[in-house]
Amino acid sequence: MLQRRFGPLEVDVPVIGLGTWQMEADDRDSAILAIRRAIDLGMTHVDTAELYGRGAVEDIVGEALAGYRAEVFLASKVHPDQATYAGTLRACEKSLRRLRTDRLDLYLLHWRGSQPLEETFRAFEVLKQDGKILAWGVSNFDVSDLEHAIDIAGEGAIACNQVLYNLHERDPDHVLQVFCERHRIAFVGYSPLGSGQFPRPGGVEGDTLARIASARGVTARAVALAYLTRRSGAFTIPKSSSLAHVEELARAGDLVLDRDEIAEIEAAFPLA
């Protein structure tokens, strides 16, 4: 599994991690087995949030990580409504209890809400000083949001920006990803397979992915993930509660597309 430096951190993280959004609706035992299998296959970046299932998913992840915690780069998120200074501290403590750990490797503001960023970031820094988080970042921030955040926190403080990014949602390619690279902010794409809208063979999009996948001996989903992590600061966190699906996704971690393959994909999925 290819790993690379995660933004400004002195930490290497696999390019393909595991998301857990909506995992509360899945069979719990299957989800736990899938998380553990993902870790065994090198997908050690596990992402969750207090919002997911109102804490239920953090509880699932916590059970899955028993005996695995030292191997995992664990991320969770604070809901914007909770993200006052005191509220952020409380939310982190609750997440730690549900996750059955004494620390998070990454703690994110889930999106920009009405609470002052200065107070949220102040809480993040206190949590870092107390050893409860290794690093912090943001999610669903656009360039203007990031500029404001950097003005408050300074360069090198924001570990990542996690955003919607898949073959049909590539607006970040225009400006946002380049901005993140320039400021050493890891770019983490969620819902990389389109949340049930993945292209099927029978059209230009699906046929292009299938052709490249066949030549490489992988699946079309693995090709899509390799494309989305082609840039030096990019990571992605597909969600799965299936052992077979996890094994399929993990194969993208060693796949590096060549220039012609990238051009084929971009021709099939043109930017708006």
Keywords:
272 residues; alpha/beta; TIM Barrel; seven-stranded parallel β-sheet; 10 helices; 9 strands; 16% strand; globular
How would you sum up this structure in a few lines?
The protein is of the alpha/beta class and 272 residues long.
Can you put this structure into words, describing what you see?
- The structure is a single chain.
- The strands form 2 sheets. A 7-stranded parallel beta sheet has the order 3-4-5-6-7-8-9. A two-stranded antiparallel ribbon has the order 1-2.
- It is globular and about 55 Å long.
- The protein is an alpha/beta fold and 272 residues long.
- α1 packs parallel to α9, α7 (204-216) packs across α8 (220-228) and α7 (204-216) packs antiparallel against α10 (259-268).
- β4, α3 (85-99) and β5 (104-109) form a beta-alpha-beta unit.
- It has 10 helices and 9 strands.
- The protein has one domain: NADP-dependent oxidoreductase domain (TIM Barrel).
- The longest helix has 15 residues, at 85-99.
